[in-house]
Amino acid sequence: MKTLITGGKSAQALKILKAFTTDQVLLGDYGEIPSFASDQYQFVSLGERNDDTIAHNLLNTCLDLEVDRLLPLYQFELEAVMRSSILFQEFNIHVLLPDLHHFPLYAPEEVVDKQNWAVFDRGELLYAAIPADNLSVLGKEKALNGVFYMYETVNKQKQSLFTIA
What we know:
Elements: E1 2-6, H1 11-16, E2 24-29, E3 41-45, H2 54-64, E4 69-71, H3 75-83, H4 85-90, E5 94-95, E6 117-121, E7 124-128, H5 134-142, E8 146-153, E9 156-161
Parallel strand pairs: 1-2, 1-4, 2-3, 4-5
Antiparallel strand pairs: 6-7, 6-8, 8-9
Protein name: Contig121, whole genome shotgun sequence
Organism: Pedobacter lusitanus
């Protein structure tokens, strides 16, 4: 499977690589991109940032590079990609984000413990930075899709989308 992760020049994107060890990973970012590549990933340019055409640009990049799965990490990408998720689906590109209806439940917020995060794909746990027995069950129960910070509030497990500002 070929996965495109945006925010590719960030440390956060490099941390998330652990979840996709069996995939061919493309780290995409806007502006200048390092020409470095490794066995695990390669960098790709998403061109210059244009907030009016974010979803269109990401879709074209996915199609050009034959990407199967997209993980947008920048906050400015989220709403545009969610609103265009049906278009991505029509081209068999799976977007790792909650759907538009459930997104408000996981809106990015200030998280104290940024070490505790997990990656889910359609409810299946792909990776947990801090493994816990309940994460697989939680992912299936809530049909989690994306990368989430995991934390507790008063006796309640809570999730917040893992994003780059």
